[in-house]
């Protein structure tokens, strides 16, 4: 008799566990990352070349890249950037982007892309190898105020 009660409790617990497990899987399937909106004016807060921070050596205070909602971009206050002309942009995946493509009349550049939150503020980061072989640049941008 005692054995039957223990078996019934075990079966009830197993059934409850299966129900809970299957309901969790359904909820996880509903979780979808929202599309990333990079529109706005962004300023460089850090520029790293070959793992060395060169930000203090440059005046980047006026440079901005402006991403418009219509998927165009412009540059303010030219400096040696990966492109020099305005154009269009696209992300390889709107929800989970890892590549930003900048297209100008003369060039198309693919940049490794990150969208982290640093110290409570959204940043965008690009990385690219350009110029001399072995030169790697990492740009960190913060939305301009």
Question: Can you walk me through this structure?
Answer:
With 145 residues, the protein is of the alpha+beta class. It has two domains: 1-31; 40-143, Lipocalin. The chain is built from one helix and ten strands, in the order αββββββββββ. The chain has one helix at 2-30; strands at residues 40-49, 52-53, 64-67, 72-76, 87-91, 99-103, 108-114, 117-118, 121-129, 136-143. An eight-stranded antiparallel β-barrel has the order 1-3-4-5-6-7-9-10. A hairpin with a 2-residue loop joins strand 8 (117-118) and strand 9. The longest helix is centred in the first third of the chain and has 29 residues, at 2-30. The chain starts with a helix and ends with a strand. The mean pLDDT is 86.
Concise summary:
The chain is 20% helix and 39% strand. The chain is built from 1 helix and 10 strands, in the order H-E-E-E-E-E-E-E-E-E-E.
Which features does this protein show?
alpha+beta; 2 domains; Lipocalin
Layout of helices and strands, plus pairs?
Layout: H1 2-30, E1 40-49, E2 52-53, E3 64-67, E4 72-76, E5 87-91, E6 99-103, E7 108-114, E8 117-118, E9 121-129, E10 136-143
Antiparallel strand pairs: 1-2, 1-3, 1-10, 3-4, 4-5, 5-6, 6-7, 7-9, 8-9, 9-10
